[in-house]
Specification:
Elements: H1 8-13, E1 18-22, E2 25-28, H2 29-45, E3 53-57, H3 61-73, E4 77-81, H4 87-97, E5 101-104, H5 106-115, E6 120-122, H6 123-128, E7 146-151, E8 161-165, H7 166-176, E9 188-191, H8 198-209, E10 213-216, H9 222-232, E11 236-239, H10 241-249, E12 263-266, H11 273-282, E13 287-294, E14 299-304, H12 306-311, E15 320-321, E16 326-330, E17 344-349, E18 359-367, E19 373-378, E20 383-385, E21 388-390, H13 392-400, E22 405-415, E23 419-428, H14 434-442, E24 453-456, H15 470-480
Parallel strand pairs: 1-10, 3-4, 3-5, 4-7, 5-6, 9-10, 9-11, 11-12, 12-13, 23-24
Antiparallel strand pairs: 1-2, 7-8, 13-14, 14-15, 16-17, 17-18, 18-19, 20-21, 22-23
């Protein structure tokens, strides 16, 4: 099995079953299979051959799905890029990955043609050609060849490319995939995160391999999410914690019929225990799973299970590693193993990793004596204030405990004297002053960790991955700074 054959089981077993619901249109597995072949044929006529790499930017919905599969059927690999990147950024990522062609939505075609000299196929032309057309023979594909390129969601600078082999994808689909039951209607999945995100792309491939139906939400909006769950009887989905909060907060939440929901997995960013307790209370019939991983581990390598959520004693944890996953916590500087309760970098070795050997994840974690993982931040997010080094997450947890604070994000703000000072963005639902925040923090934090720069905002700068880049925090502070009080 490879990326190009991910539809084959369903096309054979349930060709007329709805594969995708995209902008109100229902596409069967047979129709999606034909669209993937048309994408392959169009790109082949443009010169794309086995081993090539093709940028995929903003075709949207079914066309994007068909492009991933169709490109792989040529023995090439798709590089999923964020459509908000500039032409210069696209060119840089293309040079990093050896991209020589593109498959785009028309709105992004000019930008891609500026970035590349190779052939560019517009998704709309493929769709307009209709169902009949030539089918390109599929070449033999090496399991270890690159089948898919995603980009890490780094919080600073450009993301880095992650090359994923067909073998690694196949292993993950075998781990997560379910047998296809042609006699029974399957659960309906919904995609709420971008396809260029590991959660979106892997979730899509798992759904297609399992012959289920995927409802595609073009862009997350809490009202639209609630409507789609009710209308399409969605059973399971993945959410980033900020999405979950907006859903629970939305005025339509109480009046929508969400009885079809059975499973919600969440991750990609920290979730407060208070948010999860609220979700468990307001969605009592739903199994919640906190998944923890990254692009380089092809999704989750650890999880807090539904049983853990029902027990409710470790909602501040992301759970335990999956069977077969080796996890160590090491000193960031020396690499020495650290014992329970000590904070260090998580290093992981597992068959699902896109590279062999131990992977340094960049995540600061600790383990308890039961093997549960507790997130403490990211190595690169560490704040260095005059030689004192600490993570922003512990400060965010403290500020979140102040009544009136809805959301908070903390980062180091560049400073000529100390290197960095602690800055906080706060979304509040009542009037709070700078000293209210500082007085609260001084009860729980060392003085050097108390925020010196505080900016009250209407919303936090969340990116397409549902994360809050530390660089975005710095930019908001720089533009709206209300004052700093050196300590």
């Amino acid at each position: 099995m490879n990326v190009g054959s991910v539809l084959d089981r369903a096309v054979t077993a349930v060709p007329d079953r709805t594969a995708l619901v995209d902008s109100g249109q229902h596409l069967s597995y047979a129709q999606l299979d034909q669209l993937a072949d048309r994408c392959a044929a169009k790109l082949h006529r443009g010169g794309v051959r086995q081993g090539d790499r093709v940028a995929v930017i903003g075709p949207g919905g079914a066309a994007a799905v068909a492009a991933i599969v169709g490109i792989a059927r040529l023995g090439a690999s798709s590089a999923q890029m964020n459509p908000q990147l500039t032409a210069g950024e696209v060119r840089t990522l293309g040079e990093m990955t050896g991209v020589s062609a593109g498959f785009v939505g028309t709105a992004h075609a000019a930008r891609l043609r500026t970035a590349f000299q190779g052939p560019v196929v517009e998704a709309e032309t493929v769709i307009a050609e209709g169902p009949d057309g030539p089918v390109v023979p599929r070449p033999g594909i090496d399991d270890d060849a690159c089948g898919l390129i995603l980009f890490s969601s780094g919080t600073t600078g450009l993301p880095k490319p992650v090359l994923i082999s067909h073998r690694t994808v196949a292993d993950r689909l075998n781990f997560y995939g379910a047998p296809i039951d042609a006699a029974t209607e399957p659960p309906v999945d919904m995609m709420t995160v971008p396809l260029f995100h590991i959660g979106g792309c892997l979730g899509l491939l798992i759904t297609m391999h399992s012959g289920k139906t995927m409802v595609m939400l073009p862009r997350f909006d809490a009202a639209a999410w609630l409507q789609m769950v009710e209308e399409h009887r969605v059973s399971q989905t993945f959410l980033v914690p900020t999405m979950l909060k907006r859903i629970l907060d939305h005025p339509d939440f109480a009046r929508r019929n969400l009885s079809s929901l059975r499973s919600i997995s969440y991750g990609a960013a920290p979730a407060s225990p208070e948010l999860i307790e609220r979700a468990l209370s307001q969605l009592p019939g739903v199994d919640f799973t906190n998944v923890f991983g990254q692009t380089e581990t092809l999704g989750a390598y650890a999880a807090l299970s539904p049983a853990d959520h029902r027990e409710g004693t470790k909602l501040d944890s992301v759970g335990r590693p999956f069977p077969g996953v080796e996890l160590r916590v090491v000193d960031v500087e020396t690499g020495e193993n650290l014992g329970p309760g000590l904070v260090g970098e998580a290093v992981v070795r597992a068959a699902q990793n896109v590279t062999a050997g131990w992977l340094r994840t960049g995540d600061l974690v600790s383990l308890d004596r039961d093997g549960y993982i507790f997130i403490k931040g990211r190595v690169k997010d560490t704040i260095n204030r005059g030689g004192e080094k600490f993570g922003p997450l512990e400060i965010e947890v403290v500020i979140a405990g102040l009544p009136g604070v809805e959301e908070v994000a903390v980062a180091g703000f560049p400073d000529n004297e100390l290197g960095e000072r602690v800055a906080a963005l706060i979304v509040a639902n009542r009037r709070l002053g700078l000293e209210d925040v500082r007085t609260h923090c001084e009860q729980f934090l060392a003085r050097f960790k108390v925020p010196e720069i505080i900016v009250f905002v209407d919303e936090l700068p969340v990116n397409e991955y549902g994360k809050i880049p530390r660089s975005a925090i710095v930019e908001v502070v720089r533009s709206r700074r209300t004052g700093a009080v050196p300590q």
